[in-house]
Amino acid sequence: MNDSRSPRDRVGRVVRDLPRSGIRDFFELVAARDNVISLGVGEPDFATPWRVREATIFALEHGATSYSSNLGLPQLRRAISSYVKRRTGVEYDPKTEILVTVGVSEALDLAMRALLEPGDEALYHEPSYVSYNPVIRLAGGTPVAVETGSEHGFRVTRARLEECTGERTRLLLLNYPNNPTGAALEPADVAEIAAFARERDLLVLSDEIYGELTYDRDHCSLISQPGMKERTVYLHGMSKAWSMTGYRLGFACAPAELIEAMMKIHQYTMLCAPTPSQKGAIEALENGDEDVESMRAEYRRRRNVMHSRFEAMGLPCMRPDGAFYMMPWIGDTGMTSKEFAVRLLEEKDVAVVPGTAFGECGEGYVRCCFAASMDHIRAALERIEAFLASEKVSQ
Amino acid sequence: MATMDELLRLLQENALETPENLAQMLDTNEEDVRQRIADYEQRGIIRGYQAVIDEDRLDVDVVTAVIEVKITPQREHGFNEIAERISRFPEVQSLFLMSGAFDLLLFVTGRTLHEVALFVSDKLATIEGINSTATHFMLKTYKQNGVLMHSEDEYERLQVSP
């Protein structure tokens, strides 16, 4: 039988309607050029701390190459439980309340798929990490963007949440410290959001993967708030603070019933996280505090350098409290975010990410990552300054 | 417990960093950085500035020996008098008082094995109070003062990512 449907028509509707990431086109432009200094990579430039690599190698040498339990190695779940308690004061049962996943991205996807019914609305704040909106859609939910702006330091407010919450709102997704703005919540914000979630009976997915990377005050976790452990899926992973991006190791902590639901999907899809990576993660969580501290100290220095240079060259910029991103305002140049990024790339070989890749309210901003080396940051800033100067001359 | 000033750590990593760069990294001003450095120098906390050199890559003759020394401590002076006396030899680059099977650990350099051997036999071993020496010649340096003498392979990274 001759089937006339094109391959495109065979793709499911939800996926077909999903736009490509705003970064994707830009990525191809960058890849076509040599000698680019990139502030566009949301990844630490450090190799994984040696103690973690060594533990992983040791695990491989001793044959730790088989599947683990679907939930993850018991020793790792115990290490996660101790770590989370140490950082937040909240205790999760390693037997039933912790799930080890393939990166925090998988944990996020599992939570969305396990918790959303078709038509349920999920709130998330913009500018945001590029996956949030699509992951909600892929789970059958309806994403509702809560815009945040520089006037409140890109922190979500109760007033904006109130405006965006409706009858079908089931879930609130938070990411603080934040990619791409570097915003971190203050204790008063966390208390306010927690009160809102309790009053509206919302489930909260709190992506705290940058929780170790705060610079001016300690991270304030949502699960530490009264009554929040019961309604929160706490998401975290090893990629950022321990510089373990390629290990693909994340975890979720939540009430047993929610973990059980997420685990059902996980066991039929991923089955389990890579065992050698889990062995490395145990070492990182148990003995990696000093490595994290030294990387955090270096990020702090890079943040200070990048921020003071942006201010000096006339690009207003919120000084980030966390993560390793900042978003200077380039709106006064008369260029759109995309124009700015493309011209900076073509004329000065510096890659930054247009703010619109993270939502429409990112227009007028570009995201710069300060996880690049200090030498690269200084060289990129020189070029950006020269770019702005040439732009002024030509005007 | 007090922690080391971040300025000292940065200078330990790279003493050539300019006050302007240091000020930016530490979120302060150049004058503050200059003053703190001057204060550390005056108090003898910063005792010098040196480059970490991979001598294996240099086309010069340098031999380094690590020497374990057992000594008899002296009344009223303990180990200090002999240790301070040994530390004045220009051949001695570093000297530590140790716990364990021997008392002093020396790092000694010379142009040839013979030169180091002569230093040990003629100058070091003949000092009154020194009971024995054990000399180990260093063959290759992999790490010195916290600095790796080899580089990690460059791994190709993405130029742009979420």
TrEMBL record, chain A:
GO terms for molecular function: pyridoxal phosphate binding; transaminase activity. It holds the Pfam family Aminotran_1_2. Its cofactor is pyridoxal 5'-phosphate. Its EC number is 2.6.1.-. It comes from the Bacteria. GO terms for biological process: amino acid metabolic process. Coiled coil: none annotated. Keywords: Aminotransferase, Pyridoxal phosphate, Transferase. InterPro entries: Aminotransferase_I/II_large, AspAT/PAT-like, NHTrfase_class1_PyrdxlP-BS, PyrdxlP-dep_Trfase, PyrdxlP-dep_Trfase_major, PyrdxlP-dep_Trfase_small. It comes from Kiritimatiella glycovorans. Belongs to the class-I pyridoxal-phosphate-dependent aminotransferase family. This is Aminotransferase. Residues 35-384 form the Aminotransferase class I/classII large domain.
